[in-house]
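Researcher: I've been going back and forth with a colleague about how Fe2OG dioxygenase domain-containing protein might be arranged in three dimensions. Neither of us has a model we trust, so I'd like an independent prediction. The organism is Brassica carinata, in case that matters for your notes. Sequence below.
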Amino acid sequence: MSYFKSKPLHHFMASMWTERLKEKIEKTFECEFELFIEFTCLISWCRGARIGWHSDDNRLYLKQRDFSAVCYLISYAKDFKGGLFRFHSGEPATVAPSAGNVIMYTADDGDIHSVDEITDGKRLTLAMWF
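Model: Here is an independent structure prediction for Fe2OG dioxygenase domain-containing protein. You can compare it with whatever you and your colleague have in mind.
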């Protein structure tokens, strides 16, 4: 029963958090129009998981994505090994995940990125697309 009681609260907190992040992206990237949250998901990356170079709008059915955000829920080296986030170009070129940090970037081919293979532990992220 406690699971069902807490579910609406967790949903409310997640909604508040994603809304605040949406506003931050609009301000940071000087968006002319209001953004809409396209998709949000909790991703658990297990040992051996990785993703090669890509943009977040790399399929025809993903072209509505303008921006991406990744919130790190646990920290590199402390909670898992591997799993570094890498940008193909630009600065920073490599991001070492740290709990509570968020990276925001464009979803198009201007921000091609990858995630190195997880070699130990689990990497937990909250990913959002706008």
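Researcher: What would you highlight for our discussion?
Model: I'd start with this: The first strand starts at residue 39 and ends at 45. After that, consider the following. Residues 2-129 form a domain with the Jelly Rolls fold (CATH 2.60.120.10).
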